[in-house]
Amino acid sequence: MILTIAAAVFVFGLLVLVHEFGHFITAKMTGMRVDEFAIGFGPKLISKKHGETVYSLRVVPLGGFNDIAGMDPDNNTAGERGFCAKPVLSRMVVILAGSTMNFILPIVLFFTIFATVGMSVPSTEPVIGSIIQGMSAEKVGLKEGDRVLSVDGQAVTTWKEFTDKLKEVKEGQNVSLQYKRGEAISEVTLSPTFNKQENRVLIGVQSETVYESKTIPEAAALSIDYTKEITVYMIESIAKLFKEPEQTENLAGPIGIVQMSGQVAENGFIPLLKFAALLSINLGIVNLLPVPVLDGGHFVNLFIEAVRGKPLGSKAVAYTQRVGLALLVMLMLFATKNDIMRIFFK
Fold it and tell me: S-S: 219 plus which of 113, 114, 187, 195, CB 3.0-4.6 Å?
């Protein structure tokens, strides 16, 4: 439990800090007055004023905010230094900076991992790297580090040979595995699960991961490519939610993310950094969606202002923000329901 809480606080704290710092630094650079830079919500735990800005750490570490003067044109106490008084382009930069930082963070994290530890790649050895809970491999007692020697009496010497043999197993058939654990050789019989999407049986194992060392230039290029590939994949996955509503069952909320943080942290700090990088990309994409109250919604309003030559009326902005907030609350409740069902009823 302590590890799960610590991992969740680290991940959420890092993502929020980077996102809000993007808004903060660009607001300062464009001459806006920032009254408070806060990590977390609720009552203050620690606060210190430096210059004109109060820097605070609050009780609930699931978000953060920048109190930029003049966000509300009807209550601009900063004059020409208020957000609403700055050119549209400056305001666009500030709004987009948070998500931009969420795309920069994964590049930095992946670069750090690739340059120090190396890039993880699947091992070619027929050694089990991880076991998926609830599937047949776990049920018969297979463990990480077990070396598979044969499938139904046919010897295997590589992971590919092992998976190729499994592909030959038909739906409903059992499969016999001989494996080596330490110096002991044992044999088990499994009842695989047939996966209709992949049209093959699965026993719930994954290969070992090994790390290939990379030079600094290679690590830099790989970190950018890796972030780009993941971003494209996530955008496609989000688009699929609108085409295939049943996919929303896979949505995870704060409870699910906290649970996953703990599970990943059990495998070490490097996997936790990778998890933080993935969440950062996801946060960046979601924040850019054209939904009122999100950064993407604010950007759309600014774009409309640039085209019209004047901002939307305060009533129109307030109405769209109420609608956007309602949609987000509904989505959060739905994701939380998924978390509860996934954790306590499966």
Answer: 114
Structure tokens at 176: 């016999």
Terminal Cα distance for the chain, rounded = 20
Phi, psi at 25, each rounded to 5°: -70, -35
Grouping H, G, I as helix, E, B as strand and the rest as coil, residue 214 is coil
CA distance 288 to 135: 38
Alpha helices in 244-268 (DSSP H): 254-265
d(CA 39, CA 46): 10
Q: Is 144 a catalytic residue?
A: no
Looking up tokens 């030559």, which residue turns up? 309
Number of Cβ within a 10 Å radius of residue 8? 21
139-148 pLDDT per residue, tens: 999 999 999 9
Residue among 20, 80, 171, 183 flagged as catalytic: 20
The Cα–Cα gap between 260 and 265 comes to: 8
Cα–Cα dist 323/126, whole Å: 53
In whole angstroms, how far apart are CA 272 and each of 251, 286, 319? Answer: 20, 21, 40
Contact 343, 259 (CB under 8 A): yes
Which CATH code of 3.20.20.140, 2.30.42.10, 2.60.40.3080, 3.40.50.2300 fits the domain covering 124-210? 2.30.42.10
Query: Which of these, 143, 142, 134, 92, lies nearest to 303 by C-alpha position?
Result: 92
Torsion angles phi and psi, residue 301, rounded to 5:
-60, -40
Q: Where are the domains of the chain?
A: 2-117+254-344, 124-210
pLDDT bucket at 97, cuts 50 / 70 / 90: very high
Q: Which helix (H) or strand (E) holds 335?
A: helix 314-344
Residue-wise burial string across 320-331, b where 16 or more C-beta atoms lie within 10 A, e elsewhere: bbeebeeeeeee
pLDDT in tens, 157-215: 999 999 999 888 888 889 999 999 999 999 999 888 888 777 788 899 999 888 888 99
